[in-house]
Amino acid sequence: MQGLARFAVYYTAPGALGDFGAAWLGWDVAAGRAVPQPRIDGLDMAALTDTPRRYGFHATMKAPFRLAGERAALEAAFANFCATEAAFGLAGGLRLARLGGGFLALIPTARSAALAGLEARLVAALDRFRAPLTPAEIARRNPDRLSPRQRDHLQRWGYPHVMEDFQFHMTLTGNLDADTAARASAALEPRLAPLLADPQPIEALSLMGEDAEGRFHLIRRLPLSA
């Protein structure tokens, strides 16, 4: 795919969990197409998932960035990184939680030093391919609402929620009021239960690209093969 506006690195879930997430959000990053969403009484699925849909079902490992340099060099560096990292599992797996402004996401049940280390090394390893943020991009992050450390991360790494402030999460909805969040949780819990593994495998990373309409597509998914 050519003409991509930004690149990112995601964790994308394999198998049935990944298929569920694509259908829930209505966008399949691997196929690069919209997919039918489930019909659930009492929930407007299109509205519920409008914000996260274009990103696809994922956890951000390196946030979207404009490219500095050649795409081929980025792809080679990504492949080299994956070849030097080992797969692991998240003990306790994932659980559904309500985060931030009220959105629902899957998060680890326990902190993982292996996951934190992987994210930190990835952010640093690929940062030479990130074009500097523009003033408008910085303003969109609302720096006045960030902690001093997060503002430092924004300036140094182009994203505030990295390193010590990294939180692995796989977004399933936009921000919801308490009642809608409760109804969405009630719909999600039984559907997710048979799909969640313990440990949850972290065995590959996905290089992603953003098209002109803001939708993310899978470029390459590579195993952590050290």
Automatic annotation (TrEMBL):
Tree of life domain: Bacteria
Pfam families found in the cross-reference section: DUF1045 (PF06299)
Source organism of this protein record: Paracoccus suum
Checking InterPro entries in the record gives:
DUF1045
Q: What is this protein called?
A: DUF1045 domain-containing protein
